[in-house]
Amino acid sequence: MTSSTAIYPGSFDPPTWGHVDLIRRAVRIFDTVTVAVTTNYEKRSLFTVKERVEMLQAITSDLPGARVASFHGLTVDFAQECNARAIVRGLRAISDFEFEHSMAVTNQKLNEDVDTVCLMPSEAYLFLSSRVVKEVASFGGDVSPFVPPLVAERLREKFGEHKGS
Ligand code: ADP
Question: I need a surface site. Which of 53, 58, 65, 127 has the fewest CB within 10 A?
């Protein structure tokens, strides 16, 4: 039997419980899932790529099928580099669909051998995004329901906010 490999690309700025939920689902389907942090928009990010990779490594350390890497350039090229036939993406609400659909069709045009697999998170994470987490953290709000403890700690350090702990 050949082993199946997928990549799960994204910004992960920062990783949330929604991302973790998706990674857990993906490793049940694929033998190996490489969580791939894009370096394409590094300048606009709160966390450096290195910080995001380290957080993802720590919070997925209990998942034997999960790997973490970073990449620059086209997602389909990185998928090929990993010998992955699938790109995993998350669909929260219908509003994600249009964007994910156009990305999937574009990637299909770029490389016919790589398909996009969309997974739905648990209902608890349907309204969770990195953007909202950053906004809450920037005003000193409690982000513990949204992100793993390590990420909450890193957010407090970033915003110089220690009073909530
Ligand atoms: P990007 O900037 O590439 O959209 P994100 O880190 O925001 O990167 O998201 C990476 C992928 O994870 C996307 O497919 C996104 O829809 C999905 N995702 C983000 N948050 C959640 C969540 N709460 N539940 C399920 N999927 C999610």
Answer: 127
pTM: 0.94
CA end-to-end span of the chain: 49
92 is catalytic: yes
Contact 46, 60 (CB under 8 A): no
- Smallest CA separation from ligand 1 atom 9, residue: 10
**Percent of the chain at pLDDT exceeding 70:** 96
Q: For the chain, give every domain's residue range.
A: 5-126
- 18 Cβ closer than 6 Å to some ligand 1 atom: yes
SS3 content of the chain, % helix, strand, coil (to 5): 45, 20, 40
**Most distant CA pair in the chain: distance in Å?**
53
Structural fold of domain 5-126? Rossmann fold (3.40.50)
Percentage, residues of the chain above pLDDT 90: 90
With a 6 Å cutoff on the Cβ, whether 129 touches ligand 1 is yes
pLDDT band at 165 (very low <50, low <70, confident <90, very high): very low
Mean pLDDT of 63-68: 97
For 63, counting Cβ atoms within 10 Å of its Cβ (0-12 exposed, 13-18 middle, 19+ buried), the class is middle
The one catalytic residue among 11, 45, 70, 130: 130
Residue 30 DSSP label: S
